[in-house]
Specification:
By secondary structure, the protein is mainly α. It is about 75% helix and about 0% strand. The protein has one domain (about 5-175). The protein has 8 helices and no strands. The termini are far apart.
Length: about 210
């Protein structure tokens, strides 16, 4: 099974099974944050979707937020630990340990310092690499965990809110669309009636 098909299976599963769905959401959030593994997990798209499901009543949004954020924190924490104890050699020829990942991570560390953990959380494909690189370059653990937790809260808030409020907005648009359609229909009928009356009056005047 291709990973995209597996991802679609997960979406279908959590939409039909709320209880186990929370565990799946935690695991996706965790793996999406895990060094190198997260390169293949479309976690942000997943979180937007489950936020949308929450707006439809499939999940409790506070519980969903806690589960997603906890997974993100745990994934980054393990990545940081692995990086601080790793002897991985990055290479331009490697398909996973690509040299450009190390260079990008190092560049962020030099530019943003400890805040790179926060910035990196929102940088798409490179995101799960930043904590690993931070561990390699021996970032102070207290500073790492501060930005790790803060960024996870921001990440969960952003992407779950996008899905949740999009779902609510979609319902509003749908309701108003139905109302506007009915109003438009009435308006068209009134215009036709007015046109018919004016035409009949003019025809009567000519006689």
């Amino acid at each position: 099974m291709h990973w995209k098909e597996f991802f679609q299976f997960l979406l279908l599963f959590i939409s039909e099974h709320q209880g186990p769905g929370y565990l799946v959401i935690f695991l996706v959030s965790f793996l999406e944050s895990l060094a190198f593994v997260g390169l293949f997990i479309p976690g942000t798209t997943f979180m937007v979707f489950v936020g949308f499901l929450a707006s439809k009543g499939f999940f409790n949004i506070p519980e969903l937020f806690i589960v997603a954020v906890a997974g993100a924190i745990a994934g980054d924490a393990l990545s940081f630990f692995l990086g601080s104890h790793s002897n991985v050699v990055f290479s331009a020829k490697s398909k996973i340990f690509k040299l450009k990942y190390l260079q990008t991570g190092e560049g962020l560390l030099k530019k943003y310092g400890d805040k790179s953990v926060f910035v990196g959380r929102f940088l798409g494909p490179i995101r799960p690499i930043i904590p690993f690189v931070a561990g390699m370059f021996k970032m102070e653990p207290k500073k790492f965990y501060f930005w790790n937790i803060l960024s996870a809260i921001g990440w969960g808030t952003l992407y779950l809110s996008l899905g949740y409020f999009f779902g609510a907005a979609w319902d509003i648009v749908a309701r108003w669309s139905r109302k506007l359609s009915f109003t438009l229909l009435i308006g068209v009928i009134l215009i036709i009636l007015v046109y018919w009356v004016v035409t009949m009056v003019k025809a009567g005047q000519k006689k």
